[in-house]
Amino acid sequence: MELLKTLSMKEAKVLTKENFNNWRMDIEYISLYEASGRILAEDILSPINVPDFNRSTVDGYAVKSKSTIGCSEGLPGFFNVVGEVEMGKSTSLRVEDGECCYVPTGGMLPEGSDGVVMVEYTEALDDATICIYKGVAPHENCLLKGEDIKEGEMVLKKGLILRGQDIGVLGGMGFNEIPVFKKLRVGIISTGDEIVGPQDKMKRGQIRDMNTYSLAAALIKDGCQVTATAVVKDQLQLLKTKISEFLQISDMVLVSGGSSMGTRDVTKDAINQLGEPGVFIHGIAVKPGKPTIVGKVHDKAVFGLPGQPVSALVVYNVLVRSFIEAIQGVTSAKPYILGEMTVNIPSADGREHYVMVNIKEEENKKLVYPLHGKSGMLTMMTNSLGYVIIEQNQEGVHKGQPVKVYLF
Ligand SMILES: Nc1nc2c(c(=O)[nH]1)N[C@H]1C(S)=C(S)[C@@H](COP(=O)(O)OP(=O)(O)OC[C@H]3O[C@@H](n4cnc5c(N)ncnc54)[C@H](O)[C@@H]3O)O[C@H]1N2
Ligand code: MOO
């Protein structure tokens, strides 16, 4: 009797990473407009202070804050207006005690001033005099030189998946082009005599391909480039030829189906026969996804994902994505929501369980509802927001227990 030797998911992640320790990512320079979702390839230090000069954050009068102490509606202070700062221009104006200078929001503070009184708290008496009804504290209504970013400061770290705010900050520091990792090139093969594409006429006994599409979408979302896709029959030679062809143009190949122990499950043999060191994982103690295969052909990665559509995508989410992130040193945190499980979920077979769930907000609580179904039913995932992990050594989750929901 041949049984799969299963590793824990944690062990599988470590072993996969170890097998590709010398993986080198290529770098390219791209414009900020192309940077959303790309992974930063170098630490970014700021070449300048942001802002580069003291600025007002309101429309008002720049003053020496100490000269406004005690100003109130009952006892306003009288100030001479020495001039007006123009937006986007440097100023040579200077403010002394009892003097003020008009500054627009974002304008440069004149020498000597350290606070700005909002126009609402002032009244013009004539062209050269205002009264102030409310004093300001030092640095009130100002953004000081370098207060956002100091020159030389490390602002963004290598491995960050760039979001709008990160790209805006890069623009603010004067970057035009930035270094990111070149997109990983991934080929996708769906195996199975029964699999047909959307363009094919379906005969009885055949089923339509789901995995090619779900995996391609997941890869693209994770910043990879899908180099090629194919549906291949369950024949060793055909599969070997296709994997080998895809490896020529890819860094990695995902094969779905044929991962189990049936007579037509040829993925493991195909990988082993293509080159050293071949398959180094077959079987992970997870549900779904137990028959997962991970191999190395020369320096490239080949994953054999279980054919069941839920299993294939769950293993992608948990293992393949973690590998893709590990080789790129991704530092961005994974989003999850803390909620409360609404039912007991037993789990005692020594496997890590991934349970698809939904969240409903009731009485200020985030209630977590599991979805039940078989791993051949992909709508279980379309109807869920994310998944909960029940660890291998956990005997399940109790009703009322707080759980982390990892979002799709
Ligand atoms: N004797 C055993 N049988 C099975 C075991 C086992 O341990 N011992 N494990 C079961 C588990 S768990 C899974 S998961 C599947 C994995 O099987 P394979 O990776 O060999 O996948 P296939 O047999 O090729 O396909 C399984 C199922 O999924 C459908 N499929 C495959 N590809 C696609 C696709 N691209 N789009 C949509 N659906 C697809 C396929 O038609 C099958 O119904 O093995 C169990 N068996
Ligand atoms: O573990 Mo298989 O991957 O159910 O469905």
TrEMBL record:
Q: Could you tell me the EC number(s) of this protein?
A: 2.10.1.1
GO MF terms on file? Answer: metal ion binding; molybdopterin molybdotransferase activity
Recite the UniProt keywords alphabetically: Magnesium, Metal-binding, Molybdenum, Molybdenum cofactor biosynthesis, Transferase
Superkingdom in the source lineage: Bacteria
Q: Which InterPro entries match?
A: MoaB/Mog-like_dom_sf (IPR036425), MoaB/Mog_dom (IPR001453), MoCF_biosynth_CS (IPR008284), MoeA-like (IPR038987), MoeA_C_domain_IV (IPR005111), MoeA_C_domain_IV_sf (IPR036688), MoeA_linker/N (IPR005110), MoeA_linker/N_sf (IPR036135)
Please provide one cellular component term from the Gene Ontology annotations of this protein. Answer: cytosol
- What processes in GO biological process is this protein linked to? Mo-molybdopterin cofactor biosynthetic process
Q: Where is the MoaB/Mog domain?
A: 187-326
**Entry-linked Pfam families:** MoCF_biosynth (PF00994), MoeA_C (PF03454), MoeA_N (PF03453)
Which PANTHER family does UniProt cross-reference here? GEPHYRIN (PTHR10192:SF5), MOLYBDOPTERIN BIOSYNTHESIS PROTEIN (PTHR10192)
Can you name this protein?
A: Molybdopterin molybdenumtransferase
* Provenance organism: Alkaliphilus serpentinus
